[in-house]
Inverse folding.
């Protein structure tokens, strides 16, 4: 990627407190949801954020908009420090930073019509001169996302899941944002409907010059829509690079395991390609392993490293750097694997 990043995230940290006690509630621990995550998002591009459930993907998206207040780190939008903004400044910024949530029914107020839902950000931010202009804008937005503008007086329960998600997208577009966080926008939809929503997102990006942070666990969707891909494991980013580099030459053992689990329609290629199988359970984010967080499930740690090399994995947190594989990976012994 070239040019100036529209969104710069540096060393982002988010810990959630764990409280206990029957009478007096006190802090007894914390969940390490996001730890030292850094990335750039460029104009008119898509960064795909992938990983298992509980890896911190959605928390990152919400921290960028300060729906969760980060514990530490820096978020800059077009050079402005997002985390230092006062509520009034943050309110103005949210015109340019929007989010589409995973569940298209839970994120829409069932007591409001679709037209009122899409109009709400326009009214909150006083965008538009009078009801006539607001209503015209709502009709335009519904048409833009492939819905019938005449259906603005209907309620969310009268629409299918894919149509409801299109309503959520229309709401996010209402204020002409620059960046949209897409928090697993198609995971709750049927496969046949997913393609239509993904194609819509691509068309809107080309037409409106949008930048997306696309959070998902479906690797095929991420490969289709993303320009760059970042892989999360237990709150840490373990690999980041261009879509082609990460999908064809993954260098972190966790990324290799993810890629090897994706089925290939060609039976010959399916038999010949290498397999990386993980063992054990995902550790608790409230008590993550020391050093490399992936070591308790890493096939390389269990079967290929010497005792001294294993000790390094136990003692040292691996840095996210390029180990000669062409893109950064957080593994002391990163080695690119060609995926057929």
């Amino acid at each position: 990627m070239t040019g100036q990043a529209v969104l710069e995230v540096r060393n982002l940290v988010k810990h959630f407190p764990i409280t206990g006690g029957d009478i007096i509630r006190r802090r007894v621990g914390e969940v390490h949801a996001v730890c030292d995550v850094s990335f750039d998002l460029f104009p008119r591009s898509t960064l795909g954020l992938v990983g298992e459930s509980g890896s911190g993907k959605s928390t990152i998206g919400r921290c960028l908009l300060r729906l969760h207040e980060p514990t530490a780190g820096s978020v800059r939008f077009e050079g402005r420090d997002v985390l230092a903004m006062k509520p009034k400044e943050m309110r103005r910024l949210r015109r340019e930073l929007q989010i589409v949530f995973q569940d298209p029914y839970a994120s829409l107020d069932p007591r409001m019509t679709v037209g009122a839902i899409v109009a709400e950000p326009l009214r909150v931010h006083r965008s538009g001169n009078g009801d006539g202009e607001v209503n015209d804008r709502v009709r335009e937005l519904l048409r833009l996302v492939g819905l019938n503008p005449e259906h603005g007086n209907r309620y969310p329960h009268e629409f299918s899941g894919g149509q409801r998600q299109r309503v959520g997208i229309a709401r996010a577009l209402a204020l002409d944002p620059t960046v949209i966080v897409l928090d697993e926008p198609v995971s709750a939809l049927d496969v046949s409907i997913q393609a239509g929503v993904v194609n819509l997102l691509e068309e809107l990006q080309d037409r409106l010059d949008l930048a997306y942070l696309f959070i998902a666990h479906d690797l095929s969707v991420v490969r289709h829509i993303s320009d760059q891909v970042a892989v999360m494991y237990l709150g840490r980013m373990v690999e980041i690079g261009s879509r082609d580099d990460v999908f064809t030459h993954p260098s972190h053992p966790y990324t290799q395991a993810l890629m090897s689990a994706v089925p290939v329609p060609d039976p010959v290629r399916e038999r010949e390609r290498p397999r990386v199988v993980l063992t054990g359970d995902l550790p608790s984010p409230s008590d993550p392993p020391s050093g490399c967080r992936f070591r308790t499930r890493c096939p390389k740690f269990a079967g290929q490293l010497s005792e001294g090399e294993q000790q390094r994995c136990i003692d040292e947190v691996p840095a996210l750097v390029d180990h000669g594989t062409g893109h950064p990976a957080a593994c002391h012994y990163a080695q690119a694997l060609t995926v057929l």
Q: What stands out?
A: Residues 191-208 form the longest helix (18 residues). The two ends are 25 Å apart (CA to CA). The longest strand covers residues 26-41. The chain is about 35% helix and 20% strand.
